[in-house]
Specification:
The protein is α/β, with parallel strands linked by helices. The strands form two sheets. It has a nine-stranded mixed beta sheet. Helix 4 runs parallel beside helix 5. The radius of gyration is 21 Å and the shape is globular. The protein starts with 11 loop residues before the first strand and ends in a 5-residue tail after the last strand.
């Protein structure tokens, strides 16, 4: 089934879930409403005090219940609710003829994600998971560098997301953090890993891993080493990605979103083996808020019916990679990754 819209059609948006991250969505949607990028905006949350506070803060109406969202006038729904609710709620929304943005992870399990994709294809709806790093300016600039061959053959990727915080109780670091990095690595390299190996620790909450090391081995020979931890008291919060190339290497600190540091340092094997150090330099990237770029892309997809940069395939494959990592933990060995799409 194919759904068509004119680029001039009104886009009316409903936001479901107005907690901590939902508030950021509401802020951006309010800005897009003020710009005329969307035509109407309504909020809903089962926790009335929270949604009513946002209603006052942003001057927006509140829907009385979820049924009024599903069967109301909204053309698109943005769901920022607990992950366990994504599949059931999202499928209901799409079957009601509405396009869907849903925060990452797209679903709690790969089976749920596959059901969501099947419904999106059956109904012709846009299904967009919130993989926000697909809209990170420095990462996209690095992606272009890799595609041009600026770094040479990519040997390794190293990612670190570490801090000291109370672990979540609804999910561990694999679904909360690792899902970002497995997608980032696959996106940068333009291929899926062939094998995935993972080890985790549960240091404080039974059944909730608070530390994980993931090794992705790619068919092209690159290996990605991913470290996620909520129990890392050494130093400040870390959000870094390094790409090691045979010619040059690059470093992104996500806490400094307008900068890529390029290292012209390598082992030169032209005549024997020698260290070459031509120093490093910072390349600046124009800042655009990733969440705003992400939601703009969703509106564009709703209007044009063209897939967004973070499409349903991205959401499904990311959940499948994390499930493969969890399977590796259970089996104590690397597992072959066989994507379903």
């Amino acid at each position: 089934m194919v759904s068509t819209r004119s680029s001039g059609d009104a886009v009316r948006v409903a936001v479901v879930g107005t907690g901590y991250w939902g508030r950021n969505h509401v802020r951006v949607w309010r800005e897009l409403l003020d710009e005329g990028a969307i035509d109407d905006l309504v909020l809903f949350d089962i926790h009335r005090p929270t949604v009513e506070r946002l209603s006052r803060d942003f001057g927006l109406p509140v829907a009385p219940d979820m049924d009024s969202i599903v069967h109301g006038d909204a053309d698109a729904v943005d769901i920022i609710t607990p992950t366990a609710t994504h599949a059931e709620m999202g499928i209901e929304v799409m079957r009601a003829g509405k396009d869907l943005f849903v925060e990452k992870p797209m679903a709690q399990t790969a089976e749920e994600a596959r059901r969501m994709v099947a419904v999106a294809e059956e109904t012709g709806r846009i299904l967009m998971p919130g993989h926000i790093f697909r809209y990170h300016g420095a990462l996209n600039a690095l992606h272009r560098m890799i595609r041009r061959g600026d770094l040479g053959e990519v040997l390794q990727i190293h990612t670190h997301r570490t801090t000291l915080r109370i672990p979540r109780t609804d999910m561990g670091v694999l679904l909360a953090l690792g899902i970002h990095d497995v997608d980032i690595c696959a996106h940068l390299l333009g291929e899926m890993p062939g094998t995935i190996y993972c080890e985790t620790q549960e240091n404080h909450v039974e059944g909730i891993e608070d530390t994980a090391f993931i090794l992705l081995s790619f068919p092209g020979g690159t290996k990605a080493f991913i470290h996620e931890s909520w129990t890392y008291p050494v130093g400040e919060k870390t959000r870094r990605l390094a790409v090691i190339g045979r010619r040059m290497s690059a470093l992104i600190d996500y806490l400094r979103p307008t900068e890529i540091v390029i290292f012209d340092r390598r082992i030169d094997e032209t005549d024997g083996m020698a260290l070459r150090d031509e120093g490093h330099r910072a390349e600046m990237v124009t800042y655009a808020e990733p969440l705003a770029e992400e939601l703009r892309d969703f509106v564009r997809a709703v209007r044009t019916r063209e897939p967004p940069a973070s499409d349903m395939r991205v959401g499904l494959l990311s959940v499948e990679m994390i499930e493969a990592a969890a399977r590796s933990v259970g089996e104590g060995r690397p597992v072959t990754f066989s994507p379903s799409i």
